[in-house]
Every structure is written in structure tokens, then in C-alpha cells.
């Protein structure tokens, strides 16, 4: 049995989507419990009288919004759903925490309350991107926009641990760079290449952005600036390419007919390209498991993130990272 | 009449593609002359006896290859087609230079031989990317992977000049960043935002990567690391998404039939997404006009790049940049 602590007030559609998502997850799995953290009266209203033996409510009076400054909010809103949930996680009152709230606030709460694993310099937000060869971990897409080489080294270790937990036997680690040769790239990339090739990881070298959608590597290492550009460009390209295609299809009547026949194929394609199909993004490197799901997550996405959290808790991702960092430690340079 | 100096030996398919491209361009426009720079016997062989009143050959015995170190090659291969062509350009023996050769060597030759315009710190390679709202200049995609704020400021000026030459009246300048708010991003992006908003440009603020394919801005400013990731990810997404779709289409017989009907629409879409349709990428900030076309450019791409070079020479892009840099100069911080 895994207990998932859910920030019931986080996200654009909370607490409707979070409560419905929790109920759906409890329906789908007998091996989870869910704690809804938030304003009891709002949660009760969404529950509409339904109860569940494995569902409890933990009251929290405040809510951290997208407009709040992350650091201020975490420090001041002590009774917010996110802060209360993170305190519970730290204190062992659950196996994982899920939130659709502000990424910045969640990172801050993770660092200040749950804290980093021994030896980890900075936690990293690690979404999965869809590629031709399946899911690939992109690390970091969080807050580490100005990185030192050791941060990317640790991302490589944490990403490897995460993909192992996802069932990938010997994750291929690639460094996002602007050329395949060792000497290519900016100062950070060139230094990190030299460090990664000496580490006990399955480092396959640089991966050019052109090759990212082909799925050359299982773990793609980069700073959070490059990670965010990569993640969001993939999202933007998928949607704008569909728009451009639709424009072409509208030009002839027979195109329109053919496009109508292909609708289920386009839907399947869109599903493969969609984030929510791949659940949430874990915040790797903390003492416990924290998973961020999209701010616009609906009940389905919340449900799949809860189930994912239970799977990753089963796999003990923080434990794998802890030993990965300790093992790799010898190879880490001092800052 | 504009005289285009063509590095006849540069590119994967040279001199076949360069010679054929030159002949095609001369066919299409009466207002250009072309000088083929390279090994006369190889060029003559490709010409196969055909001559043209506006076509001349300038002998150059050596070739810079993709394997050459750019700096060494430019310094040592004094009689290479690229170095000879760049010398001719500097000496006013033509209005623009076109090359499909090594980007690194072309940048080096540009900096060492043609040199930067007064006040310009670094030249920038500026490809056009396809978006929903038409062509957008992405600056820099060249060699400036570790940038100071003033470099990006100058890219904004040069990109504006270039898009003006392309017929865009008041180019919207956007800074590629990981959030729309002023305080978002890494140290470089935050500093550059503050500088750009004070400049006499049509600065529209940060552009998130998700919005790039939508064509929010006419000029997208970034360092060359981010530029290369952006450019190549767009290319990679376009090709991998087509592959993913084809997989879906192959799953049912009626999908295959419908996809066959849509073939012309897919072809039109692919054309819109293709680089070569948009010609080459100018190396902005040099004293004269240098245009790089894809290493894999065929005769069609070489032809359209020659015609583009003539248009940009007509518009006097280096002249517009020279005055743009001078005007904006007051706002530039010292390094």
C-alpha cells in the first residue's frame, strides 16, 4: 500500500480536477491511499457526499497561487495546501506527493522543507518527452537556468536512476549540444562532456537537437534554460504543425474527406505527443518523491500522476538516486 | 546588375550542385552575374561545354573540407575557393558571396578577411524559420555560444535590419526565454531584457519556445547555443512527426487510402517546413554580404540562395546594419 499526498488546491482546475482524479485513481488501484490536502469545505463539496475507505482529508486553510512569489509564499503561507503536504511528506506521513500547483513554489517548498538528498546540489524537474523510440527523460526543466558542470553531472545520475525505475535497463545518457564532436558547444557543455565520459554511466556523447525527437538517448542532460526551450518547442511544434496541416487539408474538397477518414489516426498521434499521457514530472534529488503535474491538468491527468507516483514510490526512486550519487561521488569535481 | 561570388567547391554536392545552381539562377534573372570560384578543370567538366555571358570562373586550387579545423584552414589554405571568394568580396569584386561550405570556416573567413562592420562585436548567422505567420529570423545560429549582453543587443539590431530588407515594416523583436515576465530566465536573458526594452526597437518582450512556431515575433534573439537547439529541433520535429503519423496511417487500410489522397497536401506542408525554400542564412554584421546555404544544398537551393543574395545586395543589408548599429550605439553598454 502506498500513500499519496495530494495538494488538492493546486492547479487551474482545483479542487474539482484533483478530487475527481483522486477518486478515479482509488477506483483503478487497490494498492493506494490518497490524502487530500486543502480546504475541507471545498473538498467536501467536490466529493458531493461520496466517501472512500482509502481517502482522507487533511485540512489546510491557505492556497498558493500562480501570482504568488514562490519564496515568499512558501515562507509565509505556512498553512497552504502545498506547504502542509510537503511537511507531511518530509515527516513520513506518505510515500509521495503530487501537485499541479506553481512549479516555482513546489521547487522552493521541496528545497526548503523536504530538502535535497545527501550530496545533491540542486533538485531537477524531469518531464518525459515523446520520441520515435518511446519516452525520454529531459533533465533539468526546472529552475536551474545558470548551471555549473557538477549540476549537469548530477542530473545525469538522477536521470539514469529515474529511467531505471521506469524499466529502462541501461539508460543511454546524452548531452544536448550543438554538434556531436567532443569539442563542440558552449563552455558548460564542453566541460560537462569531459566529466560525463569519465563517469560510470552509459554516456553516449552529445545529442544534437535534430536527433532529440528520434529518441537517440533515454536521458537528455541540459540546463533548465535549454530544457525548457526544448520541452516547450516540442509542444509548440506539435500544435502548430497540426494547424499548418489543417490549412493544407482545407484547400480541396477531397482533402477534407480524406482528413475526416484519418481523424482517429490524428487523434492517436496527438495522444502520443501529449504530455498528460506521460503523467507528471518528478522533482528528482529530494529526500522524498514529489511529482509535478501540468497546471492545466484535468481529472485524468491527476489520476495518472497519482498512479505514477505510487509506481515510482514502489521503485524507491529517491533510494536509487541516493546510492547513485554516492557511487558517482568519486567522479564529481568540487565546485 | 549584381555580381554574386560563388564558392563553387563548398558543400556536399559541389561542384555539381553549385555549377548547376549558378546556371539556373542566370536563367531566372537577367540582373545577376556569377563568378564561380574553384578548380577550373572540375568546374569546366560540370559546365560540359556550356558557357554564359554573365558567368566567369576564378581559379582557386584548394578546397576547405568539413574535416578541416576552421581557423587553421582559413589561415593556411590561402588558395582555397572559400578564402579566394572572401578576398574578392572584401576587395569589391562582387556584391555578395554565397557558400555551402563549412559554417565554421565561413564564419572564420568572414571575421578574418571581410571583417566586422564598425561597432559590431560578432557576426551572426541568421536563418529564417517557418512559422504559422510566415518567415521569422532566428539570430544567432552561428558560433556565439557564450554571449555577453551586448552581443544579443547587436543581434536585435542586425535582425531588425535584415527583416526590414525582407520587406517587414516594423519588425517585432522577441527574446527567446523560458517565461514571459521580465524577471524570468537565466542571467543573460534577464540582463538583455532590461537592455532591449530601452532600445529604439520594436521589442515585444520574451517569447517562450512554445510560441515560436506560432510566429509571435519577426526577429527572435538568442545566443547561438539556444539558436542551434531551436533551429535543429524544429527540423527534427518536422521529420519525426511525419514518421509518427505515417506509422498511424499504416495501421488501417482506409487510413492508407486517405493518406494517399492527402499526399499533395503533405508535400505542400513539407515544402513550407523546409529550409531550402527559404534560401540561405546571411552572416550579418560583416562589411559585405555573405550567405551560407545548407551543406547538403542541391542545385535548386544554390539557385534560390544566389537570387536571395542579389535581392539582399539590392536592399544594402550591410548598409542598414551599419547605420542601425550607429544609431543604437548610444544605448549599448560597454563590455
C-alpha termini separation of chain A: 41 Å
Biggest sheet architecture of chain A: 7 strands, mixed
Strand content of chain A: 15-25%
Instruction: Give helix and strand order of chain A, one letter per element, not per position.
Output: EHEHEHHEHEEEHEHEEHHHEEHH
Helix content estimate of chain A: 40-55%
Secondary structural class of chain A? alpha/beta
**What is the average per-residue confidence, as pLDDT of chain A, rounded to a whole number?**
93
How many H/I helices of chain A? 12
User: Can you list the strand order of the major beta sheet of chain A?
Assistant: 3-2-1-4-12-11-5
Can you tell me about this structure?
With 335 residues, chain A is α/β, with parallel strands linked by helices. Chain A is built from 12 helices and 12 strands. Chain A has helices at residues 16-28, 40-47, 70-76, 81-90, 103-114, 149-165, 187-196, 224-249, 253-261, 263-273, 299-314, 317-328; strands at 2-7, 32-38, 55-59, 96-99, 124-125, 128-129, 136-139, 172-177, 202-208, 219-221, 281-284, 289-292. Chain A has a 7-stranded mixed beta sheet, with helices on both faces. In chain A, strand 8 (172-177), helix 7 and strand 9 (202-208) form a beta-alpha-beta unit. In chain A, helix 4 packs parallel to helix 5 and helix 6 packs across helix 12. The longest helix of chain A is centred in the last third of the chain and has 26 residues, at 224-249.
